[in-house]
Write a structure and sequence with these properties.
The chain has eleven helices and nine strands. By secondary structure, the protein is an alpha/beta fold. The strands form two sheets. The chain has a seven-stranded mixed beta sheet, with helices on both faces. The chain has a two-stranded antiparallel sheet with strand order 1-2. The protein starts with a helix and ends with a strand. The protein binds S-adenosylmethionine. S-adenosylmethionine is lined by residues 67, 71, 118-122, 124-125, 148-150, 153, 179-181, 197-199, 202-203. Methyltransferase required for the conversion of 2-hexaprenyl-6-methoxy-1,4-benzoquinol (DDMQH2) to 2-hexaprenyl-3-methyl-6-methoxy-1,4-benzoquinol (DMQH2). It is an enzyme of class 2 (transferase).
C-alpha cells in the first residue's frame, strides 16, 4: 500500500502507470463496445434508427450529443489535437484549400460575397478565407457566418478572433450555433461560398448535410469541403494504419483523452472514399463535382457547383 502510494506520487513513474490505464481503457472499449454490423454512411436509409459513432452502433438521436462531448472535451486543446492527428500537416492542407478556392470580391465587382463556414468552430478556415479575400483582392466587405453545433468550439473561435485583434465583434462576421444538417437560421439561396473543413464526417446524416449545403447556396454558389479521405497507396495505407493505432494512446498521454482520439480515428475510417463522397455531392444536386487528394489521399478537397 505504502509502496504503491509512493510510486503513484513519483512523477518519474507516472507515465507507465498512465499508459497501463490507457491500455486497460482501450481493452474495455474494444471488448464491451464491439459493433454489431454498423451501418455505413452510404447505405443508411431514411428513417433508420441507428447510426455509427466511431466503430460503435448508437441510436441516431444520441450521436449528436456524443460528438458534442468529444469536441467540448478537445475544444481548448484543439490545435494540439490537429497537430497530433496530422503531424502538423493540417496547416498546409488548410492553406492549400484556401488558395485553391481563391474566393473574394474581385476589384471589378460591386457585390460582396456571402460566405458560410460550417463546423467552423476554431475559425481557422473562416479567418483564412477573409484574410485571403482582403490580401489578394482588397475585399473587406464580404461577410462570413461561422457555424458550429458546439458552443465550446465557437467560443474558441471567438477567443482566437479576440487574441488576433481581427474579426472579433466585426459586423461582417457572425458566430452561430446551429446544426449543419439543417441550418434552420440560414435562408435558402443566400450564400455564395459554403465551406466545411474536417467537420462533415461528424454529421449524423452526411447526405442531409450536403442537401442543406445545396439549399443555402445561391445558384452559381460553390461547395468546398476539406476532409480526411482514403489513402490510395497501399504502403502509405499500411503506415497510416499503424499510426492510427498509436493515436488514441498519444491522445491520452498528451491530452489525457483516449476516447476522443479513438472516436476521431474511427470516424476517419468510416468516412466514404473519394469517389463515393463525390457521388453523394452529385446526389445533393451539385454539378461539376470533383476532388483533389492530398498527401496520398490522407485527406481530400471536394467541390461542386449549384447551377
Ligand atoms: C475537427 S473540428 C473542425 C473545425 C474546423 N473546421 C477546422 O477545420 O479546424 C469538427 C467540428 O465539427 C463540428 N460539428 C460536428 N457535427 C456538426 C454538425 N452536425 N453541425 C455543425 N457542426 C458540427 C464540431 O463541433 C467541431 O467543431
Amino acid at each position: 500500500m505504502l509502496i504503491s502510494s509512493l510510486v503513484a506520487r513519483s512523477s518519474l513513474v507516472n507515465a507507465p502507470l498512465r499508459l497501463s490505464r490507457f491500455f486497460t481503457q482501450a481493452r474495455r472499449v474494444y471488448k464491451e463496445e464491439e459493433p454489431t454490423a454498423p451501418p455505413s454512411p452510404t447505405t443508411e436509409q431514411p428513417g433508420q434508427k441507428y447510426t455509427h459513432f466511431g466503430s460503435k452502433t448508437v441510436l441516431k438521436s444520441t450521436k449528436q450529443k456524443l460528438v458534442g462531448d468529444v469536441f467540448s472535451s478537445v475544444a481548448n486543446r484543439y490545435d494540439l489535437m490537429n497537430d497530433v492527428m496530422s503531424l502538423g500537416i493540417h496547416r498546409l492542407w488548410k492553406e492549400h484549400f484556401i488558395n485553391k478556392l481563391d474566393a473574394g470580391k474581385r476589384p471589378n465587382s460591386t457585390t460582396p460575397l456571402n460566405f458560410i463556414d460550417v463546423a467552423g468552430g476554431s475559425g481557422d478556415i473562416a479567418f483564412g478565407l477573409l484574410d485571403h479575400a482582403e490580401s489578394k483582392f482588397g475585399d473587406n466587405e464580404s461577410t462570413m457566418d461561422i457555424v458550429d453545433i458546439n458552443a465550446d468550439m465557437l467560443k474558441e473561435g471567438e477567443k482566437r478572433a479576440m487574441e488576433q485583434g481581427k474579426y472579433f465583434k466585426d459586423p461582417r462576421v457572425r458566430f452561430l450555433v446551429s446544426n449543419g444538417e439543417v441550418l434552420e437560421e440560414i435562408e435558402s439561396d443566400s450564400k455564395d461560398i459554403y465551406t466545411v473543413s474536417f467537420g462533415i464526417r461528424n454529421f449524423t446524416d452526411i447526405q442531409k448535410g450536403l442537401n442543406t449545403a445545396y439549399r443555402v447556396l445561391k445558384p452559381g454558389g460553390m461547395f468546398y469541403c476539406l476532409e480526411f479521405s482514403k489513402i490510395e497507396n497501399p504502403l502509405m495505407d499500411l503506415a497510416y494504419q499503424q499510426w492510427a493505432k498509436v493515436l488514441p494512446v498519444m491522445g491520452s498521454m498528451i491530452a489525457n483523452d483516449y476516447d476522443s482520439y479513438q472516436y476521431l480515428v474511427e470516424s476517419i475510417e468510416r468516412f466514404p472514399d473519394q469517389e463515393t463522397f463525390k457521388s453523394m455531392i452529385e446526389k445533393a444536386g451539385f454539378k461539376s463535382a470533383g476532388y483533389e487528394s492530398l498527401t496520398f489521399g490522407v485527406c481530400a478537397i471536394h467541390w461542386g457547383i449549384k447551377v
